[in-house]
Amino acid sequence: MTREGDLVAGRYRLERKVGRGAMGVVWRARDERLDRTVAVKQLLPDTMPDDAPFRSIVRAMREARVAARLKHPHAVTVYDVAEQDGAPFLVMEFLPSRPLTELLADDGPLPAGRVAELGAQIASALAAAHEDGILHRDVTPNNVLITGDGKAKIADFGLSHATGEGTMTGDGLVVGTPAYLSPEVADGEEPGYPSDVFSLGSTLYTVLEGAPPFGTDGNQIALLKRVARGEITAPRTTGPLTDVLLRLLRRDPGERPDMAEAERMLSAVADGRPAILSGTKRLPAPTRRSRLPFAIAGGVVVAGGVLAGFLVFDGDSSEAPVAAPAAPTASAPAASPACEARYEVASRWPGGSEIRVSVRNAKDTRLTGWEVSWTLPPGTKIANLWNGSLVQDGDRVRVSEVDWNAVLPAGGTTTFGFIATTGDEGGDAPVAECRTS
Asked: What does the entry list as the binding residues for ATP (predicted)?
């Protein structure tokens, strides 16, 4: 048994325990060769479940060596991998800090600007890791450490997936907890870079809202099913950060920004600049359109489990049309669309669905106001609108901008959303009209 004062690998003198998780213990230690304080994580095979083979430890060691390649100011550095008396040890940067879980428990939800600032720091480290081929797999509030000077650092790249361990300074949060998994991983797929993006969105959502996007549930299987369906709880806050987080939390991995784009958007919000979202991937163009005045309705398509109606207004679409009106003459040129919108049924569940509507400035100059309107399907009610201002007259609905997203730069995009409660489980996305003001 390892004790205080022991010398590990001939150079790391253990001073005191600073944390313990499900799969090991963390020591503050002294590197006698380099005369510096380090954190030594001792992985304990004897604490593993009977059905967890020793190869998990071997894999942890291999991934630790990969993670040691990453040198970034917002990532906890892995210095060394050692073994003694059959036990593996990971030697890391010693970081006096508090995990975000502790900060949230003590102080409650953080302001949006602070969340964006911390998120941009973590995204920068994750973007560097992805660029180097390193996948984190367990981005959670318990693996985000806040230093004494208020900076964020992400811990345990790749390790927790292999060992079932939580953060090095935490209390052993179960890794892969459904609250922070991406829907595709909850559905049994292998994690990838987009799943790290989703988990970052879940982490920041939790710090902003005070609870994970899928809520909490003692029944882990029920929670896992909710995650797999992508049924996030509608956020209570509104503003540019909420808009960005909802993009990170797209159910379809192909619709999420990559980590570098996530960093750019979060940095923009933290700096009080518009989060220009035009670089985010969009679903394919509509396959057919109506010829109603000011309403060219996109065909309804299913892609990545999202029912989407693509809508272009205030003129003809610049996207490839099908059965479009006859080509205009030189004396009557086609008007360029000023405002484009896309209505999505992002996820469904018995009695309701989550709706997201993207509004895009299609002009080459800035747009200073917008309004999207549509007719509600029979029996549908709107609840928990975010990022917009709602006016309803019977079954006719109008949603306009709020202060922070009224102005969109050329090509810029914003998103609003709501929960639609209805007994109807099917049906097409309604035809909407997007107008500029």
From this structure: 41
